[in-house]
Amino acid sequence: MLSPDDARLLERLHGDLPLTERPFADVALEFGWTEDYVITRLSALLESGMLTRFGPLFQIERAGGLFVLAAMAVPEERYEAVTAQVNALPEVAHNYRREHALNMWFVLGTETPAQCAAAIARIEAETGLPVLAFPKEREFFVELKLPLTSGAPHGAR
Amino acid sequence: MALDDFDRALMAATQGGLPLVPRPYDAVGERLGVSGQQVRERLAQMLESGLIRRIGAVPNHYRLGFTANGMSVWDVEDAQVDTLGERIGQLPGVSHCYRRPRHLPKAAPGRSQDALSPSGGDAVQSIATGGNFWPYNLFAMLHGRSRAEVEQQAVQVRELLGAACRGHDILYSTAILKKTGLRLTHPSKED
Hints:
The complex is a heterodimer.
Chain A: H1 4-12, H2 23-31, H3 35-47, E1 51-58, E2 66-72, H4 79-87, E3 92-98, E4 104-110, H5 113-127, E5 132-135, E6 138-139
Antiparallel strand pairs in A: 2-4, 2-5, 3-4
Chain B: H1 5-14, H2 24-32, H3 36-49, E1 52-59, E2 68-76, H4 78-88, E3 94-99, H5 122-128, E4 138-144, H6 147-161, E5 165-179
Antiparallel strand pairs in B: 2-4, 2-5, 3-4
C-alpha cells in the first residue's frame, strides 16, 4: 500500500505539475521536502506499478482526433489470442476484461476518424469477431477526486 | 485546430511519460532540439486549448487498493440524460462519465436510432451482445475498495437518476489487458 507521503504526493500530482524550470523542486517546496525525494518517490511509484504513467494526458479530440470505446464478445478459448491481436495495435490505448457477454472493452485513440475506422476494421478482419463501437457523444464534467490520504474509500466524504 | 510538426513531436516525446529528472522540460527540449522554455510554452498552450487535460500521475486503481472497478451503464431518458450526466459526474466515486450511443434492434420503438456499429446490421449486434441489445446510453466509471462499495455508489447514481432511469448494469473489470494511453501512429503522414 501507499505510504502517507506517497498518498500526499499522488493527490498533489494527479494534475497540475508546474510548468516551471524545476517542477519537482517547486512541489517539494510546498511539502517541505527535497527535490530529490519527490523524484525518488515518483520513480518508485512508477517502478512498483502504482502509477502507469507520469506526464501529460492528451485529449486528441481537441485536434480533430478521437477516442472510441469498443467492445467484443470473445469466446473464452480464444481470449488470450484475441487479446494479443487487439493489443498489438498501437491505436489501442486501454483494454479491459469485464464480466459480461461483451467481455473485452478497449479504447481506440487516433488522430483522425479514418484511422479509427481502419483500426476497427482491422480488428474485425483479424479476429473474425464483430466490434461494437461506442463513440463518445458527450463527456460530462467530472470533479477530480482521488481521496488517498484520508484512508477513506472513494465513496466516503 | 490541427497539430503542427512541433505538436506531434512533443506529443510523441511525452506520451510515454515525462522524464523524472530535475529539469524534465529541458530534457524533452534537448531531445527535440528546442529549449525547455519552448517546451513549457507549448505545453501551456495545449493545456489552455484542452489538448492536454492535465499533466500528472496516472494511477493504477488496482494497485492503489481500488480493486473493485465497475463500468456502470444506465438507460436514461434521452431528454434528461445530459442534465443528469453532469450531476452524476459530481458524485464521489465517479471518475469518468459519458453519454454514448445505444445499440438497438432496428424496430425498437421509442428509442433513439443513432447507434453506430461499423459493421452494421442486427445480426452483428445480436452476436456481439450475446443476443442482447445494448440499451444503455450513460456510462459512469465507479471505483471502490470492494464491490459492496461500488454497489453503494451505484445506489447513489440510481437515486439521482430517479424515474428517468429504465435500467442499468455494472460491468466489473477483472483484468487490465493494456493501459498505455494514446500513441500517435503515423505522425505527419496523414495530412
